Amino acid sequence: MQFVDGVMHEVIEPLADLRRDPAHEAPLDTQAMKGERVTVYEVSEEGWAWGQLESDNYVGYLSANALGPAGPVPTHRVTVPRTFGFPGPDIKLPPMIALPMGARLDIRRQTDAFALNEFGWHFPLSHVAPLSARQPDFVAVAEMFLNAPYLWGGKTSLGIDCSGLVQVALQAAGVTCPRDTYMQEAALGHPVARDAMRRGDLVFWKGHVAIARDADTLIHANGHHMMVAIEPLAEAVLRIKRTGADISAIKRL
Predict the structure, then answer these.
(1) 76 bridge partner residues
(2) What are the mean pLDDT values of the chain's consecutive 10-residue runs (253 residues total)?
(3) Per the confidence metrics, is the pTM higher than 0.85?
């Protein structure tokens, strides 16, 4: 076996799919946002880059066209489910780009209403924040995605899965979070009893995770509703139990 040093790249498209195999029909495992760093170890003749995401160490295949040389370290990230970059200081102009929550930007200057990146594209100032900024309530971040369609491997308002919703929301709050449900259950928080559940607790089943909004309701991306939905805890427990799964853990951060 031959080992090679990876080369740092960054995502230059609004979104890059990371797939299990080097094919567009291969399963979607996760997604990387604009500005994220990716260590690339190999690029195939067919244009697939095999690499590892810096944010959560996920490994897979991305389109090489979605990657470029690593530029200046981003300064800001998008804090809303979706925002636009306009070519000038006027929201009536046709946008140059649409970016999902978590996309990273190199902001060079600000006006009263806009943040400008290296291309001079104008992003609404209220839609971005410095990388050091932390959302005070990650549950409120998850609630921004209410009714977003369910997509296995997705991480944006155009499509998101259960563990993707947890990861995106926690990262917005400055909490390091693995990508997959079983990793999250193992790594995050400490166990609490069901009758002690409160806002912000994570409820796990085998292969699924939900976020407690309070002692009685959850928000989660799920294949039953095919969207991010708010659901009474009791109803979710009963419905999922019919598939043969019981709650495996409730974790408090």
Answers:
(1) 105, 130
(2) 79 98 97 98 96 96 97 96 98 98 98 97 98 97 98 98 98 97 98 97 98 98 98 97 96 98
(3) yes
